[in-house]
Write a structure and sequence with these properties.
Elements: H1 10-16, E1 23-33, E2 39-48, E3 51-56, E4 65-70, E5 79-89, E6 100-108, H2 110-120
Antiparallel strand pairs: 1-2, 1-4, 2-3, 3-6, 4-5, 5-6
Length: about 130
């Protein structure tokens, strides 16, 4: 194998990053495990058309399937999605928002995803809590 092929390419590096900017949105929600309907949390910390950050009241593991219903401020529409736990934030670092779960939507209506994209435009992203990685 070529020595330079083992290095990550620009495309590889960017494909691992978020596709869409998250937006700082505080809102109520209901997130439960798909298998037992165990309540995981009721507060959205930020959201994008592809997922959200949930302030969690119960533990979960990466890959666990979740059902979530939420609203965004200024909108009466309820968004229902299936998601998986993509990330667990333990809340130990000084800049962590507490125990939280990064949820990646696996099933959400295309109409809802497009509506979120449009409605979140202009909403500021969360303030970065640490230095950017390059």
């Amino acid at each position: 194998m070529d020595a330079h092929r083992s290095q990550p390419t620009m495309t590889t590096r960017f494909s691992r990053r978020r596709r869409v900017l998250r937006r700082s949105v505080r809102s109520r929600c209901q997130a439960v495990t798909a298998d037992s309907f165990r309540l995981l949390g009721e507060r959205v910390l930020d959201v994008s058309p592809f997922g959200l950050l949930l302030a969690a009241d119960a533990g979960a593991t990466p890959g666990e399937e979740v059902l979530v219903s939420f609203r965004i401020p200024g909108c009466r529409r309820v968004f229902d999605a299936e998601a998986k736990v993509a990330r667990v934030i333990e809340g130990w670092r000084p800049h962590d928002p507490g125990y939280a779960l990064g949820l990646q939507f696996t099933e959400i209506a295309l109409e809802d995803r497009l509506f979120l994209t449009q409605r979140l435009r202009g909403t500021p992203p969360p303030v970065p809590q640490r230095a950017l990685r390059f």
